[in-house]
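The data are set out underneath:

___
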Amino acid sequence: MKLIDDISTQAAFLQSVRRDIHAHPELAFEETRTSDLVARLLTEWGIPVHRGLGKTGVVGTIVGTGQQSGARAIGLRADMDALPMSEHNSFEHASRHAGKMHACGHDGHTTMLLGAAQYLARNRDFDGTVHLIFQPAEEHGGGAREMMREGLFEKFPCEAVFGMHNMPGIAVGSVAASPGPVLASNNEFKAVIRGKGGHAAMPQLGVDPIPVALQMIQAFQTIITRNKKPLETAVISVTMIHAGSVPNVIPDECVVQGSVRAYTAETLDLIERRMGEIATHTAAVFGAECEFHFQRNYPSTVNHAAETAFVREVLAQMLPPEQVITQVPIMAAEDFAFMLEQVPGCYAFIGNGDGDHRLPGHGAGPCVVHNPSYDFNDEILPLGASFFVNLVQRWFAQPRAAA
């Protein structure tokens, strides 16, 4: 593994920054302390800072010393927000705020980009401009979309944009990057079934919405097995059913909610249309009515082929061949997808290991993201920062057309 020596010597500093952020988690669009920390460090390193995009977003700009530095630019992105969940860990840097936790590693993502920023600010021998995008609200709220709505790429034009997420289960020292869809779209649905309530002992006098809901839920799965092409992947998950308040009363209403994941727009269009048809007509068969809502949150994260090939070339110069791996697409979602819809780029995945790095005092659960026992692996901070730096240097070392 070839790391940048000056970044490796900063490992203890990067760990302290990461653990400080972890101990002070902030939710979507509330990342005031985190953005203050990011802006302060960037300013100390001589990096001009723009604040306020997406409410708490921070963009730092580093201009290289090359002749074309004003003509070419790329973006590097890290997310900053935490999750609304309680941490089960009790080590020293565990969350100090009940109901808030960095359970997805955004503390580490922010720190890796800060590590790269510190080095690039001191070593500007590249022929281009780097925009450091510290984004709020990845988990809830679509912070990438909000920064873009407020002019992110108009104010800071980029010919390509790159991001990275830690991945538990991938060995430390390995990084995955693959072209095409790597993460699914994130969508929600809500079916409000309205029947006619009454006494549980006299069901013939009413229209019970609960059997309607049960039929509807089963029929939704036929979209996956009988309407969708077998080789196209998608998931419909019913995650909430709410009806009734007492055992002897048939309710007037039953609400069914859940999540839909898919990789292609065509598959998602099919699912949305068929779910609406099934919801409406199933209710009608039973004499009920149904109000169906479908909300598209995040699109599928689709890596661009040329930029992904470039990322793999960078990784090949840093890591043994067996550690530059393929990312198997998963059904999680990521709002970096919005950026990739507007600007070509690649989203890579850096191995976080299997949890052996966790200190005494960690929770009993597995070290996987969105788990109260998770913790980011500080060992990979220098690797992530070195990757970002090497990416910048190699990108601007080649002509734009080749890139």
Observations:
- The CA atoms of residues 216 and 278 lie 7 Å apart.
- The chain is about 35% helix and 25% strand.
- The first strand starts at residue 49 and ends at 51.
